[in-house]
């Protein structure tokens, strides 16, 4: 069976719900409002290199949807219902996640989040005001990402790259940052309560303050 190739198409609401699509090409396609619950996309292309346009998933239902080894560059994920969304080993540069909802409300004041975004390139992606708490977000590239007003409380951000990244604009309490390249993180300006760091990172952060750490051995 030949891989799917679609260009400049509006995708019907239930066309790919629960389906597994491998090596498909979706060039400048519109998934707005579609229901992709439990859908799996493996090795798929959602970025048109010729026009330099990504696909729109605006207002799509992405509950437990999965993208593995896909190119989602410049994708529009605004206002999606994304509880349990899985993005692994993907290109997601410049994607827009504003308004994406990764939360399950248990009561008016109680909720939990679920997302599995790992080993992906999130450079210059927009996560402004997104809540991604206690989620698996390890080994990603966050270089230049916009996280203004976002909350990552308790998430696993280990092994990440955070160059050209403004730590002051989001909340990172109780995150695991071990093994990450911390870029311009200034511990005088960022609340790091409960954050996990490894010894090499701590030495680097202290060195930036002009403090010399002397071994007591």
Describe, in short, the structure shown.
Helix content is 5%, strand content 15%.
By secondary-structure content and strand pairing, the structural class works out as mainly beta
Q: Count of helical segments?
A: 1
User: Whole-number average pLDDT?
Assistant: 95
Query: What is the end-to-end distance?
Result: 66 Å
Approximate helicity band: under 10%
- Percent of residues in β-strands: 15-25%
CATH topology of one domain: Pectate Lyase C-like
Q: What is the CATH architecture assignment of one domain?
A: 3 Solenoid
User: N-to-C SSE series?
Assistant: EEEEEEEEEEEH
Q: Report the count of strand segments.
A: 11
Q: Looking at the chains present, what oligomeric state does this protein adopt?
A: single chain
CATH superfamily of one domain: E3 ubiquitin-protein ligase SopA
Provide the spatial order of strands within the biggest beta sheet: 2-4-7-8-11
- Which runs of at least 5 residues are low in confidence (pLDDT < 50)? none
CATH class of one domain: Mainly Beta
Radius of gyration: 19 Å
Shape: elongated
Report the sheet with the most strands, covering strand number, pairing sense and barrel closure.
Answer: 5 strands, parallel
Key structural traits:
217 residues, Pectate Lyase C-like, five-stranded parallel sheet, two-stranded parallel sheet, 15% strand
